Each structure stands twice: as C-alpha cells, then as structure tokens.
Amino acid sequence: MRFKRAKVVGSAAALAVIAAAGSVTTVHATEDGASPADGSVGEKARAPEKIDSRVVDKDDSHIRIELKDKRQVSLTYAKDKGLVERHRPAEGGNWSSPKTIHKTKAESCQGIDARAHGDTVAVTADWGRYCSDGEPPQESVAAMGAGDLTEWDTASSKGSDGWPPAKIYDGGDRAEFVAKGPHSTTTLPWKKGSGFGDEVTVYEPIPARFVGSWRAEDGSHRVTFQQAAGGKPATGTIETLQGQRCLGSGVVTKKSADGVELGNFTVREGAETKNCPPEVFEHFYQVKTTESDMRLMELGKPPKPVATYERTGD
User: Fold this and answer.
1) Burial class (CB in 10 A: 0-12, 13-18, 19+), 194
2) Is the CB of residue 18 less than 8 Å from the CB of residue 5?
3) Rounded to an integer, what distance in angstroms lies between the CA atom of residue 121 and that of residue 101?
4) Which residues contact 1 (CB under 8 A, 6 or more apart)?
5) Which of 209, 225, 207 is nearest to 293 (CA)?
6) pTM
7) β-bridge partners, 71
C-alpha cells in the first residue's frame, strides 16, 4: 500500500507534505506465530487504552464526538474539498475555523470513524466512485490529532480498502491502524510528536515442512517453496525437467496445517503445461508429516492425489 504522510498545521490548513510516498517495511512471522507486530510495531506489546470519547451525533457525512475533558470535535465530508475538522472548548463557545485535514474532490463513502483516549483523537475516512452505494473505497486517510488539536498528522493511500479504527496505546502517546487480510497483517504506527511511521506487513508463514525443493515422481517437473522473507510472501517456483519448457512462480498461502495453495502464478520462461501451474482453486499441495512425500491434490469429496513428489537435496 503506497501512502502519503502529511501534517496539517493551524486554521489555514497549510498542508506540508512530509513524504511523497511512505516506505513500506515488510517482515515475516515464524511458523509458531511469533512476530514483531503482533499488537505493536517496534514497541513492547501492551493492551490498548480504553476509548473514553462518546459520539454526540453522526450520519453518513459527519461525526461529532465529545472527549473525556468535554471538548467536542467535528469531522465532515465537504464536497470537492475533502475531510474538514472543527473543535470547540469544553465550556462551549465558538467552534474553531474549518480546517481541511485531507484534500480530495473524490466522492465520499458512508460514514467517518472518530474516537479518542484522553486528548488523542484517531480518525479514518474513505472516498471512491460509487462508494456511497457500497462499492469499495479507492482513497483513504488515517488521521491523528492530539493536545489542542491545532495540528493533525495524516497518512493517505489509494487503491486500498481503507483502515479499520485505530487502537490507542501508552496514554495516547502512540496509536496503530491495523488491517488484517486473509494471509497478512499490515500495521500503520503513529507517535505523538513524530507522526506516522512506515507501514509494516507481516505475512503468514507456510508450514516449515513444505520449504525446499520437491521432484515429481515421474521426473516431469520440480516444485520449490520459499518461506516469507525479505519483503515478500512465501513463494512457489515450478520448473519442468522434460518436455515443454515451463518456469514460473507464484504466491503460496497456507490452506491448513498440512496443505498450501499456489496462486498468482507467472510464467517467466516457456509456456504453461501440465501441473505448471496446477489449475488455481482446483488443486493444493499436501505434506502430512515432516517425513511424508508431497502430493498434489485435486479438490473433491474427498480430495484425490494427482501427482507425488519426493524431497530433493537442492
């Protein structure tokens, strides 16, 4: 996910772009589930703080919340402007001047999320064509304000499904937006005083018993699995050893404790041929124990083996 980080300062809403495109740090979990991002990024994992704000009013294009100290914060989708923020003191009185904390002319989605712990406020908002009719967003922003709320940090992205609501930590000094996919978790961290950091993506590992090279029993081809590492998910490479030349690779995901699936396969040399690759969504690889041969299974009730592989010394 590519994103832009910015800081909005003062009532004039001067937008200072801090990074044209946020860098993405990718790490991988071990098979036992341990990872440096299992609840925090680069910090000791702690339970998130309790959200102590309350929603005063809300509709598809607006939300107003009250903080623990009774101040109020208002966020609104403004047509052809973007996301506009205002706040007012606990004793009431005048609202601050409207401040555009994210500029866009895109069509807004339904709803804005805003929540706080103490004086730290976390916001998520989304835009996209037909988004208000239920289509996925095409543009999203995560925003954080703290203290007197005159400055806001934002991280905007395009081509993503947006961010779930943030979790706030350490009394409001730190927050994380965590997006969980089927086989990976991406965390966008924020710190008071320094703003948003780099995204960190943790890929689900495949069972260790699959890692390495396997030769088909009939000698026709070889399959090699590599564990998630170096900014990439687990991958599988298939190379034919006789007949039609086919060399390509794809992404491998865990199906079960003894099964993995291969998808997004790209042929780099030659052309597709039998089992290079197996038909997607119709087959999976199975290794029942660390001492077992590998089998290519065709889905069915029950699944049936269509090829057998022996581990090689490669």
Assistant:
1) exposed
2) yes
3) 13
4) 24, 157, 159, 160, 186, 199
5) 209
6) 0.78
7) none
CB 259 within 8 A of CB 284: yes
pLDDT digits 0-9 by tens, 242-281:
999 999 999 999 999 999 999 999 999 999 999 999 998 9
End-to-end CA distance of the chain: 35
Strand partners, 63: 58, 75
pLDDT band at residue 153 using 50, 70 and 90 as cut-offs:
very high
For residue 23, what are its two tokens? 């860098």
Q: How many helices (H) and strands (E) does the chain have?
A: 0, 25
| 163: nearest Cα among 98, 102, 245, 239 | 102
Strands ordered across the beta sheet of 120-127 = 14-19, 3-9, 151-158, 139-146, 120-127, 113-117
User: β-pairing, 24-28 with 199-203?
Assistant: parallel
**pLDDT in the model for residue 161:** 84
pLDDT in tens, 106-147: 999 999 999 999 999 999 999 999 888 888 999 999 999 999
SS percent in the chain: helix, strand, coil, step 5: 5, 50, 45
Please name the helix (run of DSSP H) or strand (run of DSSP E) that holds residue 310, with its range, or none. strand 304-311
Widest Cα–Cα separation across the chain: 81
Cross-strand bridge partners of residue 11: none
Check if the beta carbon of residue 73 is closer than 8 Å to that of residue 85.
Answer: yes
pLDDT of res. 120: 98
